[in-house]
Design goal:
This protein has 359 residues and is an alpha+beta fold. The protein has 15 helices and ten strands. The strands form three sheets. A five-stranded antiparallel β-sheet has the order 6-7-8-5-9. It has a three-stranded antiparallel β-sheet with strand order 1-2-3, with no helix packed on it. A two-stranded parallel sheet has the order 4-10. Strand 2 and strand 3 form a beta hairpin. The protein is globular.
């Protein structure tokens, strides 16, 4: 672990500023911070370099959209005797004599199993899926006090008339930043006043990336725009129902939507007048659908302290109860997949990494 901690203990800014004092270069080289949610002076260099290296070989997009991931893996799970269940809320992990033996559903049913694995994230798992007695017995609250949730966000989902070629939509993502301030200052200014310039705006063009899109939706296109959005400005609406949060909530979302659309038009003026629908998700939307308590987008913050926490591993103090997902390794599809590999190895005692690398 020594070589790892040598860099994971340092911030992204510490390492890169030791290589160059050119602040403009540093801003360019750390531009991918939006992929993990922390600006350079707060993020672990390990997280940044993992993302940077990941894209050296280019990015990928599932032909047919992200739903193809489920359609592809479902037969494998079924063949192995598993079942994917939807619209089935877990109320609590069923623990008897300090041993996980299934889950209790919201409708009162108990589904028994030899092992239980939670991919819901550390905070959600310990705060919502385990009884207070279990949390207190194993002092799991102490673990939660050593980590914090990542940034919350907004996503503007846009539908347009006209195909990707007709609208000249790029296949690459756009990252848009304030011109005259560094990333950390931009984030600080924005968190103090959300009317300040957006610290980062990410624009993606799923319809243009997917070669099968025109076959499914001819003459149509989609665009996603994401930015940081503090949870606390929406906290007063916490407890209200999705799609029924009131006029003032919708007014705030509309104000943010229009600002994001202006950023889009600056980059792609040809799409103005082509938008037929748009809808903004807020941190409360993320909380509603994903059960993240603060609407966080990347699970736990990827600061240097996070990678020192020995409890962020698959095994838990509860027998037969395991963790997986982005909190065990890092955020992102790759991090979550690798966490699944680690959890499977921890549960079975088999080194699956060795099997994969050796194949």
């Amino acid at each position: 672990t020594k070589p790892f901690f040598k860099y994971s203990d340092k911030t992204t800014y510490e390492v890169i500023s030791s290589l160059t004092q050119n602040e403009e270069w540093i801003k360019v080289l750390t531009g991918q911070y939006g992929d993990y949610g922390l600006p350079p002076k707060e993020s672990s260099f390990f997280m940044h370099t993992t993302v940077a290296k990941h894209y050296f070989g280019g990015g990928s997009f599932p032909i047919g959209g992200s739903s193809q991931i489920v359609k592809t893996i479902d037969p494998v799970i079924e063949k192995s005797g598993g079942t994917i269940v939807i619209n089935a809320e877990v109320e609590e992990v069923h623990v008897v004599n300090n041993k996980a033996c299934g889950v209790r559903m919201a409708d009162g049913r108990i589904i028994n199993s030899d092992h239980v694995i939670s991919g819901a994230g550390l905070i959600t798992t310990y705060e919502k899926l385990l009884s207070k007695d279990i949390v207190n017995k194993y002092r799991l609250r102490d673990q939660l006090n050593k980590v914090k949730p990542s940034a919350a966000h907004a996503c503007l989902y846009i539908g347009l008339e006209g195909g990707p070629d007709e609208l000249e939509l790029p296949k690459t993502n756009l990252w848009i930043y304030p011109k005259d301030t560094d990333h950390d200052t931009s984030v600080k200014n924005y968190l103090e006043d959300i009317d300040a310039e957006f610290p980062v705006v990410y624009v993606s063009f799923p319809a243009a990336k997917d070669p099968d899109w025109p076959n499914r939706y001819p003459g149509k296109s989609t665009i996603d725009i994401i930015t940081i959005l503090p949870y606390d400005i929406f906290e007063s609406w916490d407890g209200s129902k999705w799609m029924k949060r009131g006029e003032s909530y919708e007014d705030l979302k509309e104000k943010i939507s229009q600002r994001l659309l202006e950023k889009l038009y600056e980059q792609l003026p040809q799409v103005k007048g082509k938008i037929v629908h748009y809808e903004l998700s807020s941190p409360l939307t993320t909380k509603h659908f994903m059960n993240y308590s603060k609407g966080e987008i990347y699970g736990l913050d990827h600061n240097p302290e996070r990678f020192r926490q020995k409890f962020l591993v698959p095994r838990t103090p509860i027998k037969n109860f395991y963790l997986t997902g982005q909190d065990i390794v890092t955020a992102g599809v790759g991090g979550a997949l690798f966490a699944g590999l680690l959890t499977t190895s921890a549960l079975t005692g088999k080194n699956f990494m060795k099997k994969i690398v050796g194949s």
